[in-house]
């Protein structure tokens, strides 16, 4: 049982509000991922939970106990630091074993745990090295190893995989997922900027947004299951942040809103969308959003000229100049070849269009993109 | 019983002292332990004061400098009740020096006075007579220095002495001033007498030496520096204490056998030969647990028997006039007989009368002298200023008794 | 002493509402300082108080039990320290000595530290060699230098003459024009290793990747030194300087041995010792010691205020 | 990266210069210690007939070996004690912000601002009150008066330079404050520690005034005091040769110590600790 | 003109060979990306070029000049360090301006450059902060800013974006591409473990492989255009490293090889593949490779049971248990929903199959997946 509950937590550095009004519960055994733009306070939030920073206001409960005044060591959490924070004078082995030594575990048990962690992190050959003689990725793995040997109630990971190569990243990611499953009731809080990681690992994503010096706005933009944030972003910030490349946005004017959808016009072209805009008067400014992968290229009433192409092997992204607006639309092309300068037909399928009002809040979508129980069951 | 005896720093000097003390121990069946003190007499005094000031019984018998009786009198035992008149054998001037406010606080142990060493061979070479006044000495020194330098011995100086700002300069300057009949800074009644023309003349005479017959460095010379120059054969005259005699006549000395000794010159024909009195005394700590025994040891160490032994083995000058006629002693150190008059008439520094202020007086005096020597002040001004300072130290004049 | 420039190092987390977490951290801190404080209070507290008390009396070394309270007489009375010209000349000597010697030592120490920090085959040897002057007891080295600098049989004069640098021997420690600088020179010789070693330690702790970044950027070495090395080792340099300055302001042995009690070079400590020991004036001596203490406090406080402002100005 | 030859040359010239300046007086000390009698006053760099008689007389007259041991005990004791105490204090003063920290730092510094001779008599009473008079313990204790402020201040400075992430990592590992200080910070501070303790050691090694005042029997004598007590035939005669021999003997252990500390003095240890 | 040529370069740390036999030319103006597993020597290679490490053997030429003995400063390179290497005592502004100050640029010019870089890296509000008060991503951006203000002939980037969030990452990536284009002839060498970055930015990818202590093996596994490495991996190592999730591998036995392809059997099932295996005798062991996105799920003769699902919003990955081998195949599912436990039909299209011989070397592919001139033209 290690539920973590943050109650109206605030944090300021000097006069600068960094986090405000954090209301969050991480259930026992849950895998929670923090994402958000660089500098929005993810590491700070993690450090608050770890007890490395004091909250400026609000309470943190772990297991129902208020831990605001509890030393980090007493909270039974392990943390992987974004900056590694390895002990430079100790070997890799000692770095990992150090935190165990005072737990009275017995030499054999310590050795077993360290070697097991080293094995799964491909560090076995490096155990006798000191951090100074390791590569960036290797250091990061040592930092991860140091956390997992501890087997605590709560894991805090601050961008643990950011320096790893893709294949090791996938392996370590799977390893962490496996660890999470095997430890059963240990909660994990995980900061990442990698959407794939966030999507694949998270039971719950917490998207933070920067306060930019204002006070009073809650820091959390949206909390929910990954697919929920993907399919039902609560506002434009969430929509643009989740997904890579980012969602395309088109400024439009509401023409007509009904129970079965709306119509709006952008660049003189009328576009239908499956959203409920009945709360807005006709003529309101709205923003349409569509993800690159949802633009149906190859057929359709609209035309766009390819001005830039990005090849990613399996697929590519085309930057399309369209009459809909000044910013080019990014569309995903699978397999199909295109060249710069080509003009391609495309459509913006109404069910895939997101609609945001002038404040940036999303209008309710009419098409179903629910997180199915089956999808959830995998976690 | 066990007595603790402090008789100097480890080395040849202490060994001689230990011999006598062990002799006493054997005779009386007691034990003597030796306490060492630093070689530097300032540090020695500081240490003794610290120890005695705290009433420590870690020392029973101690050696004290000739200028300390006034300073330490309060911590020392009056020896009169124990001496049974033994002090009468010693030079009266020293005994007087050691008597503070009617108490005999120390017994004379050995004596030191300033004396003039000279290069017999050089004087002979230029057919010159040993000078008797400072002016003569200056002339002789100049002449030999000039001639020798012309002959290529360009390191040779006429006269070396102790010009550093320290107690040694007080001794030197006191000799000059006294030799010109300029008094002893503070007279026996406690009156400050230093500001007088004779004293000024004396200092002027000395100031002229610096840079002419004496190297400029003499302003930072103590005994050993002077001896270093002289013993390397680079000086014609040297003012120093008796210890230099035996050292300079050791094997390996460049001037072995070439050194003559004479009294310090007079300040002009009307002046007198003046040599500052130095030397060491033995005293008993007031906090001694065995004062009687300690006094007994002290009396043995200062007895004629012990002094004779010391004179022969260590060329320490006895404080008992009778010993200067002892053939054994004369055989060992022929100069002792020659210089007897010097010892007998040595000028004591004004320590008895100034008591605990002696160091201040001396300090002011040597600083004034040093200023004159280094050309920073005119002698008359410096002395007038010194006079003022000393009078401020003791507005009513110095009084010996407490 | 100085408000830290190194942010990465600053432990200070200003927080408006002190949590009990922070309070317990502070409690721990006090517990950890306690042994040091207890030891210092024990060994320094009583003696310091006593000195200050004596400074208000007319105590004499001969008999410390007989004393009278004289108030501030020893300080500002007719014959008080503050009215003694000799005292002020000692103050001037000492300040001059401290400023010049500490400055020189810092500069040379930095140079030597940089030499020591350069990897090379002779480094081990050099490091041992450099420490020798600091290792020889002051009394001995002062005497040694007096000996070597003597104009009659001093080896330095002979060497300088044979090198043709001077044409007649100089009386380094007797000539009033030279003594002061001779003393400074010897002090510099003796204590540069102290500075060098501390600065070397500081240099060792500068992160090497900063240097690499600067190397790639082609920043000239002098600039790297002045803008990266120096600011990063500055805290250590300043501390080293404080301790050197404290020592220099209390300089005693060196001057005492080399020039005895000459007024030209008398330092405050020599003055204090003279009063306290040679002249027996425990009361007056304590007063001058206390004034010496105050001078040092003033000097250090001024120095720290100055460096703090400078460091914040950067 | 190969260095420019001119640069290398300059380096070696500088090294040679520093070596000569540092070592010449010591060399001359050695040379003087091998001279006898009148040779002492000659300016020859090396005696024509080196003799060890000064060393012989040194060890004949006094148990110099025992004095050396005393000095080692006193300095070692003082340094160990001050390091032990000051490492703790330095952590608190350097890495925890609490009210009164600045005042504390200044107080600690202030202690070392009084001239030693002025507090001598007070210390003397203290030493006697503690029953430590004429014991080496008295010297260990009183030497703390100058070693302790020094080590505290220097260590505080270096303590602050360590990345705060390290402390936090240790905090997360749940180690106690002592483990943190001694197992994490201390090894990282080795260069500073080595330098500081060496300097403090030498300071204590050369301490004279306390050693002279607080001990009296030969069994408790330290080397500087012993040197000051070397005398010649009379109180005026300075036994220069013997003193030089003694100086050589005092200095050699320190040089050995420096050589021993070599590795600790130079070790860039923080590499790889954190990024940024 | 700033061609970089590495000639038989080697590097060892002590006895450990890290890089061997590096033969590489980066043309003037080229954008070259180093990728490879963590610890394979990417940073080391970069540091060799920068002049921060000495080569153990071989020569490095920049602009035709041998620079082995040239100080880093003389090489006119700028570098972004993996560890940031910020000056801890300087503000962000000074960190960026510091390298310019000695170039005699004039205060105004320096200010202009710094502010421009700060603007494009979203650092404008942080210019007065010191590194200690920055978040991980902010520090990384400062490090990038410090390099770009210098405008050197050669840029060396060591994982410059690893701590940035996805959207900033894309923006900065585009910024770097723009920078590259605008600087015209400046060469860039860029270490990353992000395949998207590598694919989108690189003119040339250099894939390094770890030596694992052996000597004599060249460190470079393959050099070429991104799509070439994607479509024509030279060996199994390259095939598995490029692409994420990694290519699926199936052990098989060669049955028959002809000019138009081969047939082989795996798990008793016969699979055709479009590769030229005529050099191998029938019965040889071969390995088949297929990327998750090329497995045609929904139709086909083969069947697989879904044992694990990863949802990534737009698509998901299914882990299929098949009769072809013990390791599950990873297949990409677009849109389509599946649940754990479902059995799905699928096919392994012959043109998409890669075939590797027993040594792991790729057999020539018969299907065309060339890098088209049009595709290349975008760079
Ligand atoms: N100073 C050193 N001494 C010994 N080995 C070292 C040293 N520095 C690096 N290594 C080793 O050299 C290898 C290459 O290191 P390098 O930093 O170049 O790797 P990398 O490819 O950049 O890895 P990453 O992606 O993890 O940053 C690593 O295995 C590392 O352990
Ligand atoms: N000690 C400090 N003083 C002042 N501001 C700080 C301090 N530490 C961090 N900040 C600021 O607080 C904000 C949040 O920092 P934090 O490290 O939590 O960001 P983050 O979300 O982890 O970013 P990243 O993804 O870049 O690591 C940043 O804008 C940073 O500049
Ligand atoms: Mg962060
Ligand atoms: Mg790397």
TrEMBL record, chains A, E:
Sorted UniProt keywords: ATP-binding, Cell inner membrane, Cell membrane, Membrane, Nucleotide-binding, Transport
One GO cellular component term: ATP-binding cassette (ABC) transporter complex, substrate-binding subunit-containing
Gene Ontology MF term list: ABC-type maltose transporter activity; ATP binding; ATP hydrolysis activity
Segments traversing the membrane: none
InterPro entries reported in the protein's UniProt record: AAA+_ATPase, ABC_transporter-like_ATP-bd, ABC_transporter-like_CS, ABC_transpr_MalK-like, ABC_transpr_MalK/UgpC-like, Mo/tungstate-bd_C_term_dom, NA-bd_OB-fold, OB_MalK-like
UniProt entry tagged with the keyword Nucleotide-binding: yes
Domain ABC transporter: 4-242
Protein's name in the database: ABC transporter related protein
Organism of this sequence: Pseudogulbenkiania ferrooxidans 2002
TrEMBL record, chain C:
Region (Disordered): 1-20
Keywords in alphabetical order: Cell membrane, Membrane, Transmembrane, Transmembrane helix, Transport
TM spans (from-to): 29-49, 97-116, 128-148, 178-203, 224-246, 282-306
Gene Ontology cellular-component terms listed: plasma membrane
Membrane topology listed for this record: Multi-pass membrane protein
ABC transmembrane type-1 domain location: 91-305
Localization per record: Cell membrane
Major localization listed first in the record, in broad terms: membrane
UniProt-listed CDD domains: TM_PBP2
Domain of life of the organism encoding this protein: Bacteria
InterPro entries (UniProt xref): MetI-like (IPR000515), MetI-like_sf (IPR035906)
GO biological process: transmembrane transport
Family classification: Belongs to the binding-protein-dependent transport system permease family.
Protein known as: Binding-protein-dependent transport systems inner membrane component
UniProtKB/TrEMBL annotation, chain D:
Matches recorded under InterPro entries: BP-dep_ABC_trans_perm, MetI-like, MetI-like_sf
Keywords: Cell membrane, Membrane, Transmembrane, Transmembrane helix, Transport
Homology family: Belongs to the binding-protein-dependent transport system permease family.
Membrane-protein topology: Multi-pass membrane protein
GO cellular component terms, A-Z: plasma membrane
Location of this chain's protein in the cell: Cell membrane
PROSITE patterns, A to Z: ABC_TM1
Domain of life: Bacteria
Lineage of producing organism: Bacteria, Pseudomonadati, Pseudomonadota, Betaproteobacteria, Neisseriales
PANTHER family assigned: INNER MEMBRANE ABC TRANSPORTER PERMEASE PROTEIN YCJP (PTHR32243:SF18), MALTOSE TRANSPORT SYSTEM PERMEASE-RELATED (PTHR32243)
Location of the ABC transmembrane type-1 domain: 68-261
GO biological process, one term: transmembrane transport
Signal peptide, first to last residue: none
One protein family per Pfam: BPD_transp_1
Residue ranges crossing the lipid bilayer per the database entry: 9-30, 67-91, 103-124, 136-159, 180-205, 238-260
Protein name: Binding-protein-dependent transport systems inner membrane component
């Amino acid at each position: 049982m290690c539920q973590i509950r943050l109650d109206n937590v605030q944090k300021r550095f000097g006069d600068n509000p960094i986090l405000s009004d954090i209301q969050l519960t991480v259930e026992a055994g849950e895998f929670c991922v923090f994402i958000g733009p660089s500098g929005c306070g993810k590491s700070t939030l993690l450090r608050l939970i770890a007890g490395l920073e004091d909250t400026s206001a609000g309470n943190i409960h772990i297991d129902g106990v208020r831990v605001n005044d509890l030393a980090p060591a007493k909270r039974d959490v392990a943390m992987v630091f974004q900056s590694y924070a390895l002990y430079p004078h100790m070997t890799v082995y000692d770095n990992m074993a150090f935190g165990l030594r005072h737990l009275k575990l017995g030499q054999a048990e310590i050795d077993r745990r360290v070697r097991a962690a080293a094995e799964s992190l491909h560090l076995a050959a490096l155990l006798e090295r000191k951090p100074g003689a390791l590569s960036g990725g290797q250091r990061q793995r040592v930092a991860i190893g140091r956390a997992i040997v501890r087997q605590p109630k709560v894991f805090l990971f601050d961008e643990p995989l950011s320096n790893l190569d893709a294949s090791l990243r996938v392996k370590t990611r799977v390893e962490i997922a496996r660890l999470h499953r095997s430890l059963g009731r240990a909660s994990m809080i995980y900061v990442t900027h990698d959407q794939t990681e966030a999507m694949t690992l998270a039971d719950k994503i917490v998207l933070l947004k920067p306060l930019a010096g204002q006070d009073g706005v809650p820091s959390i933009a949206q909390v929910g299951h990954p697919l929920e944030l993907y399919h039902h972003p609560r506002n434009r910030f969430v929509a643009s942040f989740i997904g890579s490349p980012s969602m395309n946005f088109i400024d439009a004017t509401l023409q007509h809103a009904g129970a079965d959808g709306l119509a709006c016009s952008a660049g003189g072209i009328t576009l239908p969308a499956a959203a409920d805009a009945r709360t807005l008067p006709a003529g309101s400014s709205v923003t349409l959003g569509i993800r690159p992968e949802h633009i149906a290229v190859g057929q359709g009433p609209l035309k766009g000229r390819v001005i830039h192409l990005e090849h990613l092997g399996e697929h590519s992204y085309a930057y399309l100049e369209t009459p809909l607006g000044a910013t080019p639309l990014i569309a995903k092309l699978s397999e199909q070849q295109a060249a710069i300068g080509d003009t391609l037909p495309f459509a913006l399928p109404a069910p895939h269009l997101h609609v945001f009002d002038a404040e940036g809040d999303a209008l309710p979508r009419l098409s179903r993109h629910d997180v199915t129980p089956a999808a959830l069951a995998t976690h | 019983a066990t007595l603790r005896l402090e008789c100097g720093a480890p080395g040849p000097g202490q060994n001689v002292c230990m011999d006598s003390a062990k002799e006493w121990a054997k005779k009386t069946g007691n034990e003597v332990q030796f306490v060492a003190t630093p070689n530097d007499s300032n540090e020695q005094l500081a240490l003794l004061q610290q120890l005695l000031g705290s009433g420590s019984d870690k020392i029973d018998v101690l050696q004290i400098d000739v200028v300390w009786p006034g300073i330490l009198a309060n911590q020392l035992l009056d020896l009169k009740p124990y001496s049974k008149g033994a002090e009468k054998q010693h030079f009266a001037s020293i005994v007087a020096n050691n008597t503070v406010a009617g108490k005999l606080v120390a017994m004379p142990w050995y004596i030191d006075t300033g004396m003039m060493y000279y290069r017999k061979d050089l004087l002979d070479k230029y057919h010159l007579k040993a000078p008797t006044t400072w002016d003569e000495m200056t002339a002789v020194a100049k002449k030999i220095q000039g001639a020798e330098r012309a002959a290529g011995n360009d390191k040779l100086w006429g006269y070396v002495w102790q010009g550093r700002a320290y107690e040694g300069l007080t001794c030197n300057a006191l000799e000059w001033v006294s030799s010109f009949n300029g008094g002893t800074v503070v007279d026996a009644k406690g009156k400050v007498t230093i500001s007088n023309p004779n004293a000024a003349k004396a200092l002027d005479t000395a100031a002229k030496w610096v840079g002419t017959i004496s190297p400029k460095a003499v302003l930072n010379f103590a005994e050993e520096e002077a001896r270093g120059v002289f013993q390397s054969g680079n000086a014609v005259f040297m003012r120093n204490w008796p210890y230099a005699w035996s050292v300079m006549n050791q094997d390996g000395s460049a001037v072995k056998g070439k050194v003559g000794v004479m009294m310090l010159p007079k300040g002009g024909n009307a002046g007198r030969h003046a040599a500052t009195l130095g030397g060491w005394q033995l005293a008993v700590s007031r906090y001694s647990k065995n004062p009687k025994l300690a006094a007994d040891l002290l009396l043995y160490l200062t007895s004629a028997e012990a002094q004779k032994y010391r004179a022969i083995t260590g060329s320490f000058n006895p404080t008992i006039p009778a010993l200067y006629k002892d053939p054994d002693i004369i055989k060992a150190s022929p100069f002792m007989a020659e210089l007897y008059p010097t010892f007998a008439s040595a000028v004591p520094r004004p320590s008895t009368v100034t008591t605990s202020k002696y160091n201040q007086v001396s300090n002011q005096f040597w600083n004034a002298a040093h200023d004159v020597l280094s050309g920073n002040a005119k002698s008359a001004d410096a002395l007038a200023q010194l006079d003022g300072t000393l009078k401020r130290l003791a507005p009513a004049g110095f009084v010996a008794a407490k | 002493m100085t408000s830290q420039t190194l942010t990465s190092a600053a432990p200070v987390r200003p927080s408006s509402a002190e949590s009990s977490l922070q309070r317990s951290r502070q409690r721990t801190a006090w517990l950890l300082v306690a042994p040091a404080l207890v030891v210092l209070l024990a060994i320094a507290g009583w003696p310091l108080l006593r000195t200050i008390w004596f400074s208000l009396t007319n105590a004499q070394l001969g008999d410390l039990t007989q004393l009278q309270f004289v108030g501030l007489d020893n300080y500002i009375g007719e014959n008080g320290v503050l009215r003694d010209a000799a005292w002020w000349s000692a103050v001037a000597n000492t300040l001059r000595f401290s400023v010049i010697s500490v400055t020189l030592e810092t500069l040379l120490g930095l140079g030597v530290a940089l030499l020591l920090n350069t990897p090379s085959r002779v480094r081990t040897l050099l490091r041992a060699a450099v420490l020798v002057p600091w290792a020889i007891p002051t009394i001995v080295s002062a005497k040694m230098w007096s000996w070597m600098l003597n104009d009659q049989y001093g080896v330095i004069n002979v060497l300088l003459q044979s090198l043709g640098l001077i044409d007649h021997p100089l009386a380094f420690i007797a000539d009033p024009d030279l003594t002061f600088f001779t003393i400074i020179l010897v002090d510099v010789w003796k204590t540069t290793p102290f500075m060098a070693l501390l600065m070397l330690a500081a240099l060792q702790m500068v992160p090497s990747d900063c240097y690499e970044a600067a190397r790639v950027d082609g920043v000239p070495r002098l600039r790297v030194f002045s803008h990266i090395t120096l600011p990063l080792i500055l805290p250590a340099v300043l501390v080293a300087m404080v301790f050197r300055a404290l020592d220099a302001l209390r300089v005693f042995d060196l001057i005492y041995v080399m020039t005895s009690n000459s007024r030209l070079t008398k330092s405050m400590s020599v003055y204090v010792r003279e009063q306290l020991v040679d002249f027996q004036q425990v009361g007056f001596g304590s007063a001058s010691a206390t004034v010496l203490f105050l001078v040092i406090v003033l000097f250090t406080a001024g120095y720290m205020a100055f460096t703090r402002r400078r460091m914040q100005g950067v | 990266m190969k260095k420019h030859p001119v640069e290398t040359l300059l380096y070696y010239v500088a090294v040679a210069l520093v070596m000569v300046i540092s070592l010449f007086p010591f060399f001359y000390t050695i040379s003087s210690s091998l001279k006898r009698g009148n040779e002492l006053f000659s300016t020859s760099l090396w005696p024509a007939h080196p003799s060890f008689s000064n060393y012989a007389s040194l060890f004949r007259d006094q148990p110099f070996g025992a004095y050396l041991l005393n000095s080692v005990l006193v300095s070692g004791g003082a340094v160990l004690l001050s390091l032990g105490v000051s490492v703790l204090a330095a952590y608190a003063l350097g890495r925890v912000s609490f009210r009164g920290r600045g005042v504390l730092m200044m107080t600690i510094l202030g202690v070392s601002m009084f001239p030693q001779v002025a507090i001598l008599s007070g210390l003397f009473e203290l030493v006697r009150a503690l029953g430590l008079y004429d014991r080496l313990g008295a010297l260990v204790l009183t030497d703390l008066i100058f070693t302790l402020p020094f080590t505290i201040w220097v260590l505080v400075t270096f303590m602050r330079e360590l990345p705060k992430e390290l402390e936090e990592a240790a905090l997360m590992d749940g180690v106690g404050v002592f483990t943190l200080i001694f197992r994490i910070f201390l090894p990282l501070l080795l260069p500073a520690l080595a330098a500081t303790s060496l300097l403090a050691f030498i300071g204590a090694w050369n301490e004279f005034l306390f050693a002279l005042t607080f001990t009296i029997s030969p069994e408790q004598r330290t080397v500087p005091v012993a040197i000051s007590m070397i005398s010649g035939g009379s109180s005026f005669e300075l036994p220069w040769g013997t003193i030089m021999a003694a100086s050589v003997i005092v200095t050699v252990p320190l040089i050995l110590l420096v050589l021993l500390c070599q590795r600790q003095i130079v070790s860039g240890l923080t590499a790889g600790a954190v990024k940024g």
